[in-house]
Design brief:
Layout lengths: L1 H9 L11 H24 L1 H21 L5 H24 L5 H23 L10 H28 L3 H12 L1 H9 L4 H24 L12 H25 L3 H15 L6 H4 L2
Length: 282
């Protein structure tokens, strides 16, 4: 039994993440916005209901994602959306229910993220998402994603409320900050793995800040007061349309998965580490 479990843990899979292009980042920001608005809306209706929906949705999404043996747009982005909702609830719960300051939760989630990165790097020799081709690496990946959502939520609330920038001001701040890894990778030779995860973390407070700006009343972070429900619906519709487009694009390129699998095989044979030229070429 233990041999079978160990073998399954390392069993090769097809690529389990999408290609990193403009559509990926647009969807990532939208899912963060939707997760923030949906979490706040559900909590405003009923805390127990919010906890139930968040936990069940997260569990179902992870079950569906881990059952898949290759990347599928609907499966992957449903998982990201549910992590967004659940991660927001986890971050807000420590502040609202336990009374921990945002500065403390920010440090706590940053530490948790660092620990996951260290364990992942020590176990697999790379933090590149191009290497997500085994169950163990996929587990590290989703633990990292969950930690980044929780950290980003705490950071966004820290700047908006504790530092009193307001949600719109925080959104502008993070829009500027995310240009650092973008320009650094494009022009300054930043390590592509470092640049990716830097940008990935920042997308969370970026999307959440603008979602809160639209949803919250003016007396809370100078919001526009549209409400969490409408913001959730609009962002969810936008996500649905873009994921449908991504899925249609995948179907129109039947050889794309095979090409990506062959590319992953080359990466695996080279046994590269973060920062190798093979990564930067992808």
């Amino acid at each position: 039994m233990s041999v079978n479990v160990s073998t399954r843990w390392r069993e090769p899979l097809a690529v389990k993440v999408p290609q990193i292009a403009v559509l990926f980042w647009v969807l990532k920001v939208l899912t963060t916005a939707m997760g923030e608005a949906a979490s706040d809306f559900l909590v405003s209706v009923n805390i127990a209901l919010a906890a139930f929906v968040g936990a069940v949705g997260f569990g179902a999404a992870m079950w569906w994602q881990f059952r898949s043996r290759r990347y599928a747009a609907w499966t992957y982005w449903f998982a990201v959306a549910m992590v967004a909702v659940f991660g927001t609830m986890a971050a807000d719960g420590l502040h609202v229910e336990l009374g921990l300051p945002y500065a403390v939760t920010t440090i706590g989630y940053a530490t948790a993220l660092a620990v996951v990165f260290v364990l992942w790097r020590r176990s697999e020799g790379t933090l590149s998402i191009h290497s997500i081709t085994t169950r163990r690496r996929e587990t590290y990946y989703w633990l990292t994603v969950l930690a980044t959502f929780a950290l980003g939520t705490a950071v966004g609330d820290l700047t908006a409320t504790t530092f009193k920038l307001g949600y719109f001001g925080s959104g502008l701040l993070f829009a500027a900050v995310i240009m650092v890894p973008a320009i650094g990778w494009w022009r300054l030779g930043f390590n592509p793995v470092f640049a990716f995860w830097f940008a990935y973390v920042i997308t969370r407070p970026l999307g959440a800040s603008f979602a809160d700006w639209f949803a919250k009343p003016h007396w809370v972070g100078h919001g526009l007061g549209i409400g969490g429900g409408p913001v959730t619906v609009v962002s969810a519709l936008a996500i649905t349309g873009l994921v449908a487009y991504a899925a249609a694009q995948d179907r129109s390129r039947p050889g794309a998965h095979a090409q990506r699998a062959r590319a992953e095989g080359r990466h695996q044979r080279r046994a590269w580490a973060p920062g190798d030229p093979a990564e930067a070429a992808d």
